Amino acid sequence: MYTMSSSDFTVHTSECDAVGSGMPISSLPDEVQSLDDLDCDCWDVFDSFEEIE
Ligand SMILES: [Zn+2]
């Protein structure tokens, strides 16, 4: 369900329009500790970080 942008390596949902032709990844990077670390609007559909996992 995660996609990493090949241009800036930000992580998005697989449905995100902003990521373009990124590469699918199986899990969030260790650096991502909270929703605040995910800048894109595609994560706004999640109310809490727990919902993503
Ligand atoms: Zn996104």
Structural overview:
The protein has a domain of 25 residues. With 53 residues, it is mainly β. A three-stranded antiparallel sheet has the order 2-1-3, with no helix packed on it. Bound molecules: zinc ion. The site of zinc ion has 6 residues, from loops.
Defining key terms:
53 residues, 8% helix, binds zinc ion
Topology, pairings included?
Layout (H helix, E strand, L loop, with lengths): L1 E3 L6 E3 L9 E3 L23 H4 L1
Antiparallel strand pairs: 1-2, 1-3
Bound molecules: zinc ion.
**Small molecules bound:** zinc ion
* Structural class label: mainly beta
End-to-end separation in angstroms reads 10 Å
Largest sheet, if any? 3 strands, antiparallel
Helix and strand element order: EEEH
Walk across the major sheet and give the strand order.
2-1-3
Quick synopsis:
The chain has 53 residues and is mainly beta.
